[in-house]
């Protein structure tokens, strides 16, 4: 981490030492948000609410009742998570004026841990995109590399951390939407195991794949946030009943004796040779610290993109049917019949990419194509999951690139959405298999940070974060 | 190959209104996508069970106890048109 970058740990230390107050941290955060407005990273700034909560945090601290490392720390959340009485737009015209009637579980847990939510972040509409160019509110600019995309769909969350507006943020990841923007913006992003964090209050894109997770400047900050967010929730019956653990426990463990699997399928054709060299050099540094590097095989991951886009769009076409012009904000003013109301409200409210994905989802679910596409994709999902299970018999953690190359230039992928979809080639398979994954900056190539993706066993975040911390410690960053 | 009427049928199923101008670009995009997705159709996966969701965790059910829910006021707050605790829609029966 660059010393000028914020981290939860350093800010919490300043609070404990009395060198800062939550109010001063929040004011600093709000000032930076204001100063960087041209980067379009935020959809709402919650200044009044944040100031009140910062004041309450300072009062707790003064009374000796501080809650923990997140108490008083400014955090941003992606604008597809409900926070009561604030707008949740999902980057869409159809939800432009939607005000959350309740707070989702992950956000509630964040606030219960004392965190101060200062803003909601811009995103690809309904989390559909890999560049943040699909937002109704316009694209986000990458603070580190302004000519390149910030990644998506949690591009605002990654950019907000890279720009130092907040030390950490929350994103959501359906096919790489935390890890991919983290790599584009040169920060750390963790997608936990499916079932680790409740999605209650997260606007659904593809329910069998969606997962909430943290982004930060350090691996430790992601672990601190996961400690606050993880655990069973009666409102989301896909959450695991596994007992909570301390995700910071192995951060200093090192990699002595750890077996790191390297799938040849992820280091072959399609990967930029210079990025490959940087990743292998990073793995060599881990080897010199005692890790074993083992070749593993994931023969079916080449079908992951196809399987993912069939399953995700099928689920999206169903999930987004609730936006009908009747219950949520946007309604076509001139509709004369109920069907007309549905069709016009949705066509006016959804952007082109969302409409494309809904149409594709309807196609793969329609009579005559259901077995050939949807069921076949689910079978491929099983085979890919089996590949990972077999690989994990030989290793503890799997390493791969996060991106196949440098981030695209702004506008470069808009004319051919397939090019954009293929940028998720290394990330989507984890969502299909429900595995945890983290992207960590490990080196620089052509002056740009390179993200290494580490993949863990189901519910193996503690070990995963330990290896990620070792990658971070040995990273070659300016 | 898709035809314009296929796109219009999908739009109807999806409750979307696609303009004639947009039909061509939507058709092009869908054909491009399907050409890629077709790689799955030739795979022999006859013995494989479809995976509808992640195997772990097993779905955990909460106790069947009535809990808090949204008030009428909150539930209707985002509706574009409401009348006496009802969502208002265009006339359905003539």
Question: Which secondary structure elements does this structure contain, and how are they paired or packed?
Answer:
The complex is a heterodimer of chains A (478) and B (94).
Chain A lengths: L7 H9 L5 H14 L6 E4 L1 H16 L11 E5 L26 H8 L3 E6 L33 H8 L5 E6 L5 H7 L2 E4 L19 E6 L2 H11 L29 E5 L9 H16 L3 E5 L7 H16 L18 H12 L2 H14 L4 H22 L5 E5 L15 H6 L5 H6 L3 E9 L2 E9 L4 H13 L5
Parallel strand pairs in A: 2-3, 2-4, 7-8, 7-9
Antiparallel strand pairs in A: 1-3, 4-6, 5-6, 5-10, 9-11, 10-11
Chain B lengths: L3 H10 L6 H18 L34 H5 L18
What does this protein structure show overall?
- The complex is a heterodimer of chains A (478) and B (94).
- Chain A has 478 residues and is α/β, with parallel strands linked by helices.
- Chain A has one domain: Amidase signature (AS) enzymes (Alpha-Beta Complex).
- Chain A is 37% helix and 13% strand.
- Chain A has 15 helices and eleven strands.
- In chain A, α9 crosses α11 and α9 packs across α12.
- With 94 residues, chain B is an all-alpha fold.
- Chain B has three helices and no strands.
- The radius of gyration of chain B is 22 Å and the shape is flat.
- Chains A and B meet through α9, α10, α11 and α12 of A and α1 and α2 of B.
